[in-house]
Write a structure and sequence with these properties.
With 149 residues, the protein is mainly beta. The protein has 2 helices and 9 strands; from the N terminus they run βββαββββββα. The chain has 2 domains: 81 residues, Chitinase A, domain 3 (Roll), CATH 3.10.50; 49 residues, Beta Barrel (Thrombin, subunit H), CATH 2.40.10.330.
Length: 149
């Protein structure tokens, strides 16, 4: 039975929920999550937990906020004049809104509050400050040494 090692390509079933049980992400066997262990393209704590797992094995990993999407940063809650938004954009509390800045970058914020003149936007990631419970199941492992032969 193959164990996962650094550099192996793995296909995973993955389900992520908040601590309260709200589903954040899920996939199925037809759309597996594919990653190279150690490339740093996934949460480091989950990549570490994958080491030595085998095909068919399932683990549940709890990620603290700082190991997932980071803490909620109060300074990223900002007030913006309504006048900067196009009039055809529907502005409602709870809506996600895209902001383009002069540098060419875009940011997404959630409308937290609004009055006649301003919007209060939370520019944090939706999952910032939240602990996540992630269940991973290994569907397949392609060992590094098999790729070079």
């Amino acid at each position: 039975m193959k164990n996962i090692k650094e550099g192996d390509t793995v296909k995973l079933l993955c389900e992520a929920k908040t601590e309260s049980g709200e589903l954040c992400y899920t996939n199925d066997a037809q759309n597996p999550l594919k990653l190279v262990v150690g490339d740093g393209n996934f949460f480091p704590n989950i990549e570490e937990a994958l080491h030595e797992m085998t095909e068919g094995e399932t683990k549940v990993i709890t990620l603290e906020a700082e190991d997932a999407f980071g803490p909620h940063i109060d300074d990223l809650v900002i007030k913006v004049p309504k006048s900067v938004f196009k009039t055809e954009v529907t502005l409602e509390i709870g809506s996600r809104i895209k902001i383009d800045v002069p540098t060419g970058k875009s940011f997404i914020g959630t409308i937290q509050a609004m009055d006649d003149q301003t919007l209060t936007l939370d520019m944090n990631h939706l999952l910032a400050g939240k602990r996540l419970v992630v269940k991973v199941t290994v569907l397949s492992i392609e060992n590094e040494e098999n790729k070079t032969q």
